[in-house]
Write a structure and sequence with these properties.
42% of the residues are buried. Helices cover 16% and strands 59% of the residues.
Length: 333
């Protein structure tokens, strides 16, 4: 009754890097320690950046890919490799004496984000600031069917993230200030975070002949805190919202390849971003247009409904754009 799919690959994003490293080094050139006003700006900025990078690197609801962005002062390159998805377990069963079906749902994801910011301004020309994030996420809930078309799925997930910053001072200014900036904890730091992620998916599915149309909406809340950090300035505590609206179409083609039926389809989604995520991504919405071509393995390969290839174009205002390529796999438990 329910299909779940998630492309496996890498997702672009932008806005998670900025030139604040340069500004902090400039502060150090004038002060022995970071002034309170600059510290407050730094902690607020880095909190949203680390939160965005952790969600981008580990959340199953966000895909993977590569992204490059150039500006007057720096070039940013981001790459995300990710594996994850969701699945409903078994066929729906009756909920007590109610005319409602339900089935358990599992979700999980694991990913790695690598981001590099190369400066070419007059002060930091030649310097670079690298961010690496590893994140793993797991959780679940249940899907409740009110009829053959409409269902809701409340879920809760937990996520662990580890983020590191490495600054390479190659310019005269960078070499002169890198050691002090490291001692202050402004650069070359690492932090461990935990995130709680409750969400509610509402879905309507309609079948016309054998073509499946799925409309869904899913508000998601993220709360992230750091529990271990090598820098007193990197103290992360923040909350964010995301709200995804999606239309998905699955079309069986009636043509076989290697003994399996070909299917095509794809989805279009818009995800609204709020609070820390909006600040971290520097946009209020992310759009994704995804297409796929797959082979149907339902009933022939353990828990797998189809395997194939997918491609997505992802963009968000004027701040970022990119492409995601990878395997497209659907599971039916």
């Amino acid at each position: 009754m329910q299909n779940h799919r998630r492309p496996i690959g890498s997702l672009p994003s932008a806005g998670v890097l900025s030139g604040f490293s340069m500004g902090l080094l400039l502060c150090l050139s004038a002060y022995a320690q970071l002034p309170p006003s600059a510290r407050s700006l730094y902690t607020g900025t880095i909190s949203s950046r680390v939160e965005a990078m952790t969600i981008l690197g580990g959340d199953y609801g966000v895909g993977g890919g590569t992204f490059s962005k150039s500006s007057r002062d720096n070039n940013a390159d981001i790459s995300v490799s990710k594996f994850g998805g969701e699945g409903d377990i078994g066929a729906p069963r009756q909920l007590g004496t109610l005319d409602i079906g339900w089935q358990p749902q599992l979700q999980g994801s694991m990913g790695y984000l690598s981001a590099n910011n190369n400066f070419h301004n007059f002060v930091n020309g030649g310097d670079s600031s690298d961010y690496n994030t590893f994140a793993i996420q797991f959780g679940g809930g249940a899907r409740f069917w009110f009829n053959d078309n409409f269902s809701i799925a409340p879920t809760v997930m937990g996520m662990y993230g580890h983020t590191e910053n490495h600054y390479k001072g190659l310019s005269v200014f960078g070499r002169a200030n890198e050691a002090q900036a490291t001692r202050e904890g402004l650069i070359n730091w690492n932090a461990d975070t935990w995130t709680i992620r409750p969400s509610l998916n509402l879905q309507y599915q309609y079948v016309w002949k054998r073509t499946i149309f799925t409309l869904s909406t899913e508000p998601t809340y993220y709360y992230t805190e750091s529990f271990n950090s090598s820098s007193s300035y990197v103290d992360i505590s923040g909350s964010s919202w995301a709200w995804e609206n999606k239309i998905d179409i699955d079309v069986p083609l009636g043509v076989e390849l290697f003994g399996h039926e070909l299917r095509t389809g794809g989805f279009f989604s818009r995800t609204e971003l709020y609070d820390g995520l909006e600040e971290g991504f520097k946009t209020d919405a992310i759009y994704e247009a995804h297409g796929r071509i797959v082979l149907d393995f339902l009933g022939e390969l353990w828990k797998v409904q189809w395997i194939g290839l997918g491609v997505s174009h992802i963009w968000g205002g004027d701040n970022f754009t990119g492409w995601s390529f990878g395997a497209d796999v659907a599971f039916r438990f």
